[in-house]
Amino acid sequence: MTRQIPALIAFIGAAFIAGAIGSWATFPNVRDWFPLLQKPAWNPPGWLFAPVWTTLYVLMGVAIWRAWRAGGPAASRLVRLYFAQLFFNALWSVLFFGLKQPAWALADILVLWCLLAWLQVGLWRSDRLAGALWVPYVLWVSFATALNAAIVRLN
Fold first, then answer.
1. 57: CB partners within 8 A, 6+ apart
2. Closest CA to 144 of 22, 17, 13
């Protein structure tokens, strides 16, 4: 019991750290370079990203924490996958915004989506609520993948 709250904070904190790395890569080019790109009509407004990602980071952290609490080899595998997907999550922003390489970012987000789908199955098997908490993240990254692909196609 004494390790549970620090673990929850660590899982959520790790998501926010990945987000901070992504933001660090994003800020220099989001105002100068990104507006110059052709985007589909369904590109969301910029103000939407911060509240969406804040919510997703919390849901992600709670989901993996619930699976971690279940223990066992499956939980260890899910935790490793969680940290792997955080790496690819942060890398996407570095590739897309930092290096201005939407095509490379598309390759990254496809790997990320596969990891998320794998985690979705594992979380669902481990804890139904954890699986349910993971669904919004998979849906958002699915949307982001389509958006990334559209930007590559249009540019």
1. 12, 15, 16, 19
2. 22
Q: Where are the domains of the chain?
A: 4-154
Q: Which CATH class is domain 4-154?
A: mainly alpha
Alpha-carbon span 66 to 82, nearest angstrom: 12
Evaluate whether 151 touches 38 at the Cβ level (below 8 Å). Answer: yes
**Could you tell me the sign of the dihedral formed by the alpha carbons of 144, 51, 19, 86, in that order?**
negative
Per-residue b or e along 103-119, where b marks 16 or more CB atoms closer than 10 Å to that residue's CB: ebbbebbeebbebbeeb
Rounded CA separation 118/116 (Å):
5
Cα separation of 103 and 153, whole Å?
9
The CA distance from 35 to 129, in Å, is 39
Tell me: the pLDDT tens digits for 26-39? 887 888 999 999 99
pLDDT in tens, 72-104: 889 999 999 999 999 999 999 999 999 999 999
